[in-house]
Fold:
Amino acid sequence: MNSQVPVCLSEVADETAHWQNILLEQHAEGISLLTINRPKVLNALNADTLAELDQALDLVAKATDIRVLLITGAGEKAFVAGADIAHMRQLSALEGKYFAEQGMAVFRKLENLPVPVIALVNGYALGGGCELAMSCDFMLAAENARFGQPEVNLGVTPGFGGSQRLTRLVGRGMAMELLTTGRMMNAEEAQQRGLVNHVYPQAELLGEGMKLAEQIATKSRTAVQLTKQLVQRGQDLDLENACVMESDVFGLSFSTPDREEGMAAFLEGRKPVFS
Ligand code: CAA
Structure:
């Protein structure tokens, strides 16, 4: 299939049927749920799982019927307990570097998806699992969620961006503490430190994620996508250039039918119906 051709997720079941480790389902109109599905090893990420995740993200990127993506882990214990240690134990130094590059590329693709991505952290999010959650646009957590970068306990460093994204999210001092002790944070602390937006009882996590996703899915798709691009690209720019980019994108948004509809609806006192 041409990677540029838009698709409906409902029409590509044959492309997802052979996956062993990932589930991608349309959960409600405009909202898809991607589940890392290796509960016996707490959803640990090996190279095959990363390859399937990569394919799933390609589908999401071109799916016209996905406006928000939710990501979670199978079972009640873990979101993702890290990169697969049994897999990594067999790797040479060079293979370790390639494995890190594979994870980095997949997580970068996730970060750059056109649609917002919400991590529903339903248990352990350690090492590669914390790195996966940090590559989403924001996180909601269950009360049993645990976050950490325990690579130091295994005699290695983070490999899927943890030393960089954690530092940007919680600041250098706290990142250094977490990275050098391998200590786990509970959900409440992760929320206090700005890693997690909201914490819910585990049974309510998916429902609350759906409610938030539904709110986003009713907005202008184009405005949401442009906003994500601004936030993603702007965080690595200086303020001056980031604000120049924002004025450009603001102007661009004036060329869209959704701008016509949104402003007309406000002035006519009705709800907008976006394209
Ligand atoms: N890789 C492979 N297998 C894993 C795993 C991982 N990251 N995490 C858990 N498992 C497996 C266990 O080996 C165990 O398998 P068996 O039933 O066959 O023995 C099963 O999942 C259940 O795990 P536990 O029995 O250990 O469950 P627990 O409740 O006692 O402990 C835990 C839970 C604290 C999360 C513990 O499993 C743990 O510490 N896991 C490893 C966490 C970790 O170190 N993650 C970082 C990996 S390195 C990394 O991610 C590098 C990077 O940046 C890319």
